[in-house]
Write a structure and sequence with these properties.
Mean pLDDT: 96
Number of strands: 20
Structural class: alpha/beta
Radius of gyration: 24 Å
Distance between the termini: 68 Å
Helix content: 25-40%
Strand content: 15-25%
CATH superfamily of the largest domain: Thiamin diphosphate (ThDP)-binding fold, Pyr/PP domains
Length: 569
C-alpha cells in the first residue's frame, strides 16, 4: 500500500520492536512528529520529550546500554542535529547501538545555506558506524532496516539517518516485512552479498583458539583483562565467568568491563590503569601472559603502551580487527565475538590454579579508607550498595565521582554501570539515567554526579519531573572541578586555575523549583536516611552530599608513566 515517508518511518520502527523514542521536535521533522498523533503511533511508541537534544541523545544511549536494545533518538535539522553530536560521539567511543534520525531541509534547499540547514552526515562521519542522507522515499524503508542491522551487528555503534523534509511527505509503495526476513530483502540483502565480512560476527579461527590454550598451558603468571566487549556481547558474561574460574588467574577490568565478574569475586583485582588498583597494576607489570578480551588498550588503561605488560606475552581477543596492535603490540590475537571465542576456549580449558601468583597479586593492598565523622565518597557508594542490595543501575557523569563509583560499587551484571568511558562526557549521566530507568522501570536507578557535571545538563530535571521518572540523583558536591583540581594539586603546583565552583546554585532548591524533592547529607547517618527516603518514595529525588574539597581518587598513575609509577597511593 502507498504510504507517506513519515508513516514509513513509524512502521519501520515498529518492525524493529522499538517501544521508546527520545527526541525534540522542530520544523523539518514535523511531518514525523505529526504522524505520531495523526495515525496513533504515539500509543505504540512512547516518546520522551527531553529539555535539550543532547539530553535526548544520552537518554537513547542509556536506554541501549541498560537494555541491550537499539536506542532511538529524533531531532530536527541545523542546531537540533548538531546538538546531538556529543551524544553520538559518546555512543561511538563506547560501542553503544543507537539510531539517530534527523530531518534536513527540502531537497531543493540543500546546499544553499538555507535556514537551519547543515551537513550533519558530513559532520558525524567520523563518529558513526555509518550514516545516510535519504533523498528518495523509495529508499527510506530499506535504509532504516539497514541502519538498525549495522547498529547492532559486529562491534555495535551509532548510525545516523538524515532525511530531507520532502521525503517525509512523499509517497511510495510500502511492504511490511518481519524482522527475521530483513537480511533477505532489498538494500540489506545486497549489502550482505557484497560485504566481505557480511553484517555478522566474524567466526573465530579454531587454530587461534588452540594456540591460546597452548600458551595458557605454559603460563605461570597469567592475568586476564576484561573490557566492554564482553559486556556488549550477548551471552558473553556467563562464558567469561566460566573461563575465569577454570583458569583461576587474577582478573582485572577496564572501567567498561565492570560487572564481567562481580566486584566482590575472589579473582577480581579491580580496575586497571590510571586509577587502577595496586593489585591490578602490579599484576600487569609482572604477568607472563596477558589475555585481554574486548578492550582497546586506551591511554587510561595502558598509561605507557611501550612498557605495559612488558614481561608478558600479550593476547588480544576482539571483534574489531582494527583494534589489534593499535595501541599495544600483541604476540597473538583472535578476531571474533567475545561469546563465541569464550565458548571455544571453555571447550578446551583444563582447570588451573595459580595460588602463589594470586597470593602475590592480592598482597598489594590499597591505602586504608578513612572513617570519621564526615561523609567520604566511598561511604556514599557503600551505602548505595547496602540500601539497594547491590542491584541498582548506576549512571554516572565524568570526574572523580565516576572513578569512585567504579571502585566502590560492586557491579554484578551487564548494563548495571552506565558511564562515558571512552569520550569522557560531562553531562552524560542524567540523560543516561532517564534512558536506563525508562528501559528498566522495575530497577532502582541512581545517577551519581559531581557539582560540575550536574550543572551541564541539570535542565533534564524537567524531563524527570514531567514523566515522573524516579531517578535518584546523588551529587558529590566538593565545590570544585574535582578531577581537574586533583591534577592541579599533584602535577601543577596547587595552582587552582578556574576550578573553584563556590558559586551556587542551591541544588536542593533547584530540584524543588522543578517539583522534585531533595535533601542534604554531611555525614553517614544523614545520607543513609536521605537515600532510604528516596528509595521508599518511588519518585524522583535529589541528594546533595557534602564532600571535602581535597578528597582524591586513590590510586593515581600519571599519563605516560609505567603502570606501577603511582603518583598517589
Amino acid at each position: 500500500m502507498k504510504m507517506r515517508g513519515a508513516r514509513i518511518v513509524m512502521e519501520c520502527l515498529l518492525e524493529q520492536g522499538v517501544d521508546t523514542v527520545f527526541g525534540y521536535p522542530g520544523g523539518t521533522i514535523l511531518n514525523v512528529y505529526d504522524e505520531l498523533e495523526l495515525s496513533g503511533y504515539g500509543e505504540k511508541i512512547r516518546h520522551i520529550l527531553t529539555s535539550h537534544e543532547q539530553g535526548a541523545s544520552h537518554a537513547a544511549d542509556g536506554y541501549a546500554r541498560s537494555t541491550g536494545k537499539v536506542g532511538v533518538c529524533f531531532a530536527t535539522s541545523g542546531p537540533g542535529a548538531t546538538n546531538l553530536t556529543t551524544g553520538i560521539a559518546t555512543a561511538y567511543y563506547d560501542s553503544s547501538p543507537v539510531v539517530f534520525i534527523t530531518c534536513n531541509v527540502n531537497e531543493n534547499l540543500i546546499g544553499k545555506d538555507s535556514f537551519q540547514e547543515v551537513d550533519i552526515t558530513g559532520i558525524t562521519m567520523p563518529i558513526t558506524k555509518c550514516n545516510y542522507l535519504v533523498r528518495n522515499v523509495e529508499d527510506l524503508a530499506d535504509i532504516i532496516r539497514e541502519a538498525f542491522a549495522i547498529a547492532r551487528s559486529g562491534r555495535p555503534g551509532p548510525v545516523l539517518i538524515d532525511i530531507v523534509k520532502n521525503v517525509t511527505s512523499d509517497e511510495c509503495e510500502f511492504e511490511p516485512l518481519p524482522l527475521e526476513q530483513h537480511a533477505q530483502h532489498g538494500r540489506l540483502a545486497r549489502l550482505l552479498r557484497r560485504a566481505s565480512h557480511d553484517l555478522k560476527d566474524p567466526e573465530p579461527d579454531r587454530r587461534d583458539v588452540d594456540a591460546l590454550l597452548a600458551m595458557i598451558g605454559e603460563a605461570e603468571r597469567p592475568l586476564v583483562l576484561v573490557g566492554g566487549g564482553v559486556i556488549r556481547s550477548k551471552g558473553a558474561v556467563p562464558e567469561f565467568r566460566k573461563f575465569a574460574e577454570a583458569l583461576g588467574a587474577p582478573v582485572a577490568s577496564t572501567i567498561m568491563g565492570g560487572a564481567a565478574l562481580p566486584g566482590n569475586h575472589p579473582l577480581f583485582t579491580g580496575m586497571i590503569g590510571m586509577h587502577g588498583s595496586h593489585a591490578s597494576n602490579y599484576a600487569a607489570s609482572e604477568c607472563d601472559l596477558l589475555i585481554a578480551i574486548g578492550c582497546r588498550f586506551s591511554d587510561r588503561v595502558a598509561t605507557d603502551p611501550a612498557t605495559f605488560a612488558q614481561k608478558a606475552k600479550v593476547v588480544h581477543i576482539d571483534i574489531d580487527r582494527s583494534e589489534i596492535d593499535k595501541n599495544v603490540k600483541t604476540d597473538h590475537h583472535i578476531i571474533g565475538d567475545a561469546r563465541q571465542v569464550l565458548e571455544l576456549l571453555n571447550k578446551g580449558m583444563k582447570k588451573r590454579e595459580f595460588k602463589e601468583w594470586r597470593e602475590w597479586v592480592f598482597s598489594h593492598k590499597e591505602v586504608p579508607l578513612k572513617k570519621d565523622d564526615i561523609l567520604h565518597p566511598h561511604e556514599v557508594l557503600e551505602m548505595i550498595q547496602e540500601v539497594t542490595d547491590g542491584q541498582a543501575i548506576i549512571a554516572t557523569d565524568v570526574g572523580q565521582h565516576q572513578m569512585w563509583s567504579a571502585q566502590y560499587y560492586h557491579f554484578s551484571r551487564p548494563g548495571q554501570l552506565i558511564t562515558s568511558g571512552g569520550f569522557g562526557t560531562m553531562g552524560f549521566g542524567l540523560g543516561a539515567a532517564i534512558g536506563a530507568k525508562t528501559g528498566n522501570p522495575d530497577q532502582v536507578v541512581v545517577h551519581c554526579t559531581g557539582d560540575g557535571s550536574f550543572r551541564m545538563n541539570c535542565n533534564e530535571l524537567a524531563t524527570v519531573e514531567h514523566y515522573q521518572i524516579p531517578v535518584i540523583t546523588v551529587i558529590f558536591n566538593n565545590h570544585t572541578l574535582g578531577m581537574v583540581r586533583q591534577w592541579q594539586s599533584l602535577i601543577y603546583g596547587k595552582r587552582y586555575s578556574q576550578t573553584d565552583l563556590e558559586r551556587g546554585p542551591d541544588f536542593v532548591k533547584l530540584a524543588e523549583a522543578y517539583g522534585i524533592s531533595g535533601g542534604r547529607a554531611a555525614n553517614q547517618e544523614e545520607f543513609r536516611a536521605q537515600l532510604q527516603k528516596a528509595v521508599d518514595s518511588g519518585k524522583p529525588y535529589l541528594i546533595e552530599c557534602a564532600i571535602h574539597k581535597d578528597a582524591m581518587v586513590h590510586p593515581m598513575v600519571p599519563g605516560g608513566a609505567e603502570a606501577t609509577s603511582f603518583l598517589l597511593d
